[in-house]
Each structure stands twice: as C-alpha cells, then as structure tokens.
Amino acid sequence: MLSAVHRALVHLPIGFFLLVLFMELMVWRRYKMGEKNSAAVTNTHQWLSWMWMALAASSIIALISGTLLQNSGYYAGQTFTLHRFTAYAFTILSCLVAVAHQYRAWGDKISFFLKVTMVPLVMLAGHAGGELSAGPELMAIVPEPEHPNLSAEDTVRVYPHIIQPIFETKCLRCHHQGNARGGVSMDSPEALLTDSLGDPVIYPGDLERSLGYQRMILSPWDHRVMPPSGPPLTYHEKRLVEWWIMENAPFEASLADLNIPADLLQVLQSDFDYRTQSSAFYEKVKAEPIDSNTLRAVVAAGWNISRLAQRTHFLDVHRKGRLDSLSLDDWQALEPIAANIVWFDLSNQTVPAAAFNLIGKMPNLYRLQLQNTNIDNEDLKHLTDLQHLHTLNLFGTSITDESIPYLTKMPVLQRLFIGNTPLYEIGVDSVAQWLPGVAIN
Ligand code: HEC
C-alpha cells in the first residue's frame, strides 16, 4: 500500500523536473537570441521560480513517503542504498536551486552546475527505485542453470537443479544481495543458512526453524506469505523445498544420494521431465567403469556381456553354451565386475554350487534368470543378501516350499517365476500369501 503511494508520489518531482528542464531550455534559447530582457523572458523566469519551488516541495513529499516506507523494514541492500542516497541528493539540490531562483542568488554558473548534476541523480534514483519495486532483470545476475541429464539420477544435483531454480523464480527478485527485503538474501548457501537476527531462511532438518519455509506455507490470504506478490509457490514446489530441508538441505547431493518419496518421484517426472521407470534402480547407484583388460578377461572366460544402456557401466551378463565347461577360475573372472552386473542370465545351465556364493555377492544384481537350472532350496540362502534383486526366475527348477524362508528374506523381490516347479503345485495363491507384495507367475 505505502509502496504504491510512494511510487505514485515520485512521479510528481520527475514530471516537474522534465517540465523545468524544458522551460530552462526555452529561456536559454531566448537568451541566445538576445531577448534577455523581453517581457516573455521575465515572465517565464517567474514561472520557472514557481516550478522549482513545486519541484522541491514534491521531492520532499516523495522523500518523506520513501522514508516511511523504509521504516517498514522492507528494504535493504545496495540498490536501496543507492536509491536513498540519490533521492536525498536530488531533493537537496532541488531545494537549493529553488531558493537560488527565488532570491536570484548565486551566479548562473553554479546554478547551471547544480541543475546539470540533478539529471544523472534523478536517473539513478529512478532506475534503482524501479529495480526495488519491480525486481531487477535476474537473468543478468543469475547464471543459467546447467542442464543435467534428467534421466540419470546421479547427474541431477538437488540444490542447483531443483531447489535453486524455485528460489530464483519465486524469491530472488526481492531477496538477493543488491535488494535484500526484510534483510533477507537468498542468493548463496551461506546467506540461506545464516541469519544474524533470528532463525535462518533454511534450517537443515528443521521445518519449524526454517523461516523461509514457514513464510511460504502461510495461507495466500495471510499478508506475511512469501512471495507477497507475483506468482505464488505451487504445491509441488513447497513439497520439494520441504523434502530438501528434511533431507538436511544438502547443497551438493545428487538425486541418487537422497531418498525420494513416491509422491516426489512423480513430481520430478511430471514437473521436471525427470524420466525414470520405477524399476530403473540402477540409475540410483553408480557403477565404476571397467578397464578393457578386465572386460577382455571376462569375455575370454566364456561370458557374453553387453551394456545395459549406452552411457552406463552396468552390464547384462549371460552365457550361451553349457556352464559346466566353466572352471572355477572362469567364474572368478566375474569377481572384478561383480558390482557392474545387473542382469544375469544362467538359464538352462548347470550351475556349480560354489557359484551361488559368488552370485550372492553381486551387490547390484537386479534380474537373475535361473530357469531350468539345477538350483535347489539350499542354494537360495546365498541370495538373501542381494539388496536390489527385483526379479528372480526359478521356472522349471526343483524348488519346493522349503525355499519360502529364503525367498521372504529377499529385501526387494518383486517378481518371482515359479512355474513348473514343486512349489507351483502348492498353488500360486498360497505362495502369494507367504510373499506379500511379490508378483508370482
Ligand atoms: C515481491 C517481493 C518479495 C518476494 C518475491 C519474496 N519476498 Fe520475502 N520478503 C519481502 C519483504 C518486503 C519482506 C519484509 C517484510 C516481511 O517480513 O514481510 C520479506 C521478508 C522475508 C523473510 C524474513 C521474515 C522475517 O520475519 O524476518 C523471509 C524469510 C522471506 N521473506 C522469505 C521469502 C521466500 C522464501 C520467498 C520465495 C518463496 C520470498 N521471501 C519472496 C518481499 C518478497
């Protein structure tokens, strides 16, 4: 409200100033034409004096409204300091010139100098004032965010790619170092985390003490809600900021480093074009690159390997031909790449018992195909520590209901194929009851 009044009031002195400049120009022209003492010139001079008085008076009024506005505590920062300084200077000069005119004091030179000085002052004051009320052109001061590869979690950095852009579009206009409304600046991690006066904008892990969060979740009718004008925060944006604060407000972490609740995964997909199938866990974990010598040794040991996707180091490993021709050394060739194996296909093979121990140590194994192999109930106990095993195919094996205790221990098992096994005879429904949440075929 007050800021609207101030904005209206400052246009008066600006208008007067333009008028006065124009009239001064006219008088000066007549001077040049040698009409120094003509009635018209004397007349205009008198008018000019009045105009300067009006200019000085309106400047003072604008200054008072500005001072009241300042006392509201809304404004701080370099832009504001510049605005205030130039406005004071302009008002003082306009008063001096008005007095000089009225009493025809001082020489023309000094008067001229004062008037000329006022031109840059009013321009600076106006520019800074405009920036304060409308916000500066942010693009000029904020570097373009880097574009992450939004389909791979480990390249999406939560703060610079998700949180900071929210602040940039919804808060920074009024909360950066040049224009720190309410003394709050949000353009650096330090500024977000520190506040000398009370609670900081962001308090990692504590929503109550995160003043910025508290102010943005107020109802839109609360006059303290942030942002006070312009497009409000969407529900999704508030939710993302809330989640980030509760994850301890990390500034370096990537999506893969944090827990993403299901609702936010959807938000990321819909609002940020973040693409992932819920099954694509291997985008959450990093795989180390494998040097070519190691790869060659694996291939030489009789394994077929292919990359899961072009830019990952995750592998799909399978074997055509009979496995019993593989020596234990050949199995051990897999050890250096154990963390890279995501899909492992041993179907229709004879798997030596010792191999299950090795398979159980493939930390990122996601899909294991053991259909028509010699695996038995006991072998399964080696597989219960696999933290990512999502799909297990035991079709055509000899497993029975004694495998259930091992199967229930598998932490993330989602799909289980048991067709053509003794276990299947018991009935899919019974097995499903033992293994809630697992799709059984
Ligand atoms: C249009 C300008 C504008 C925008 C945009 C804006 N604010 Fe503010 N903000 C202000 C003003 C003015 C104040 C000081 C008056 C007040 O506290 O209400 C302020 C004060 C604050 C304070 C300090 C409150 C206190 O009690 O010290 C916080 C924190 C804050 N804003 C956070 C935000 C956040 C977070 C956003 C973005 C979601 C935001 N602001 C967007 C103008 C803005």
Quick recap of the structure?
This protein has about 450 residues and is α/β, with parallel strands linked by helices. The chain has helices at about 1-10, 10-30, 40-70, 80-105, 110-135, 140, 160-170, 190-195, 210-215, 235-245, 260-270, 290-300, 330, 355-360, 405-410, 420-425, 430-435, and strands at about 175, 180, 305, 315-320, 340-345, 365-370, 390-395, 415, 440.
Describe this structure in words.
It is a single chain. With 441 residues, the chain is α/β, with parallel strands linked by helices. It folds into three domains: 133 residues; 124 residues, no CATH class; 149 residues, Leucine-rich repeat, LRR (right-handed beta-alpha superhelix) (Alpha-Beta Horseshoe). It has 17 helices and nine strands. The strands form two sheets. It has a seven-stranded mixed β-sheet with strand order 3-4-5-6-7-8-9. The site of heme C has 21 residues, from α9.
